[in-house]
Write a structure and sequence with these properties.
Oxidized Rhodanese, domain 1, 4 helices, globular
């Protein structure tokens, strides 16, 4: 018996398909958030090492998009939040590197 994945990976092209009001939680460090890759509009900076403490007051049913540099930390963050009872979690696959990648053509 396999355990279902507690979050869904989405690509930068799928960002517009998320429900209105989906919170964008960037789990990078402050210098990364303001650095060359920038951040998504409306993103909230919640570094990974503070996430569990900060998220205790968040509604568990609210949709959350987790963002980092390459998708690894945000996947870990999604797993942590899933174990804490959050139900609608999305991981930005490839992170901000994928967002900033030039389009082919």
């Amino acid at each position: 018996m396999t355990t279902p994945i507690p979050y869904r990976d989405i690509t930068p092209a799928q960002l517009d398909t998320l429900a209105p009001g989906t919170r964008r939680i960037d789990v990078r460090e402050p210098d990364e958030f303001t650095g060359p890759l920038g951040h998504l509009p409306g993103a909230e900076l919640v570094p990974l090492d503070t996430l569990e403490r900060v998220a205790v007051t968040w509604p568990r049913e609210a949709p959350l998009l987790l963002i980092c540099r390459s998708g690894g930390r945000s996947a870990r963050a999604a797993g942590l939040l899933a174990r804490a009872g959050f139900q609608h979690l999305y991981n930005l696959a490839g992170g901000m590197l994928a967002v900033r990648e030039p389009l082919p053509g």
